[in-house]
Each structure stands twice: as C-alpha cells, then as structure tokens.
C-alpha cells in the first residue's frame, strides 16, 4: 500500500536559494538528521545531482536507497523517484517552489510504498519525521 503525505511552508528566502539548498544533496547530513550519508553517483550537464545513493535512519534501523532526480520543471520543481532500495518498493517525491514577495512557498510531497507492511502508529510517527524534513529545509534556507 502506498502512503502519501504533503506539507507546505513559507520560507523567508528566495526561491533560488531554496532550490539551491534542496539540490545540494551532499550537505543533507548537515541539516537533515535522518540522512546519514548522500553520495552523488551521476550528475547532469548543469552539474545537478541526478542519481543519489542515501543511507538514512528509518524505523529504528539503517536503510539504503538510491533516488533518481528529475529537473524537467526546474527551478519551480524538483522531483524524484526510487531507483533502488532495501525496504521500499517505491518512492515518489517533489519540492515545489513558488516565489511570493521576499518569501517562497515550498510544498514537499512524498509517496512511499514499503516492502513489508508496518502498523499504523509506526507509519504515522515515520510520516511526521519525514515531513519534518521541510522544517529542517526552512531552517537551513533561513540561516
């Protein structure tokens, strides 16, 4: 079963800065506590990460997964999907950036399907931690 969630934050930074922070995946471990390592395996002609291998904390254990990024709607949106993972069947996500005066409205959307079903209360806790990533992005962009 696919579980989806979405969250929006108003960030006191330009859309360009928010986009730049979001694609600087190698620095995620500095500000996203659940991300332990991010290794860029492939870049596009503009030096943006396309294929990224992550090691993260998830459900009380370490997980490995590789995401493939899509910049077709950049810089207004970045999207990604699962290329390979150890505990998930699919991941589809995106950041959308909408400039509004000196602020940017950022919407983070994520859909995840795990290989093994987990109890609802654990899913809700994991969803909260995942969506907290947007608050961490906000803090990083505003610092």
Helices and strands, with pairings:
Blueprint: E1 2-11, H1 15-23, H2 28-31, E2 35-43, E3 49-58, E4 61-70, E5 77-85, E6 88-100, E7 103-114, H3 120-142
Antiparallel strand pairs: 1-7, 2-3, 3-4, 4-5, 5-6, 6-7
Helix pairs in contact: 1-3
Tell me the helix content. 25-40%
CATH topology label: Alpha-D-Glucose-1,6-Bisphosphate, Chain A, domain 4
Going by helix content, strand content and strand pairing, the class is alpha+beta
Provide the domain count: 1
First-residue to last-residue Cα separation = 38 Å
* Quaternary structure type: single chain
Order of strands, main sheet, comes to 1-7-6-5-4-3-2
Mean pLDDT reading = 88
CATH architecture group name: 2-Layer Sandwich
- Give the full name of the CATH homologous superfamily: START domain
**Assigned CATH class:** Alpha Beta
Low-confidence stretches: none
Sheet having the most strands: 7 strands, antiparallel
Radius of gyration: 15 Å
What does this 3D model show about the protein?
- The structure is a single chain.
- The protein is of the alpha+beta class.
- It has one domain (2-142): Alpha-D-Glucose-1,6-Bisphosphate, Chain A, domain 4 (2-Layer Sandwich).
- Helices cover 25% and strands 51% of the residues.
- It has three helices and seven strands.
- The chain has a seven-stranded antiparallel beta sheet, with helices on one face.
- Helix 1 packs across helix 3 (120-142).
- It is globular and about 45 Å long.
- The mean pLDDT is 88.
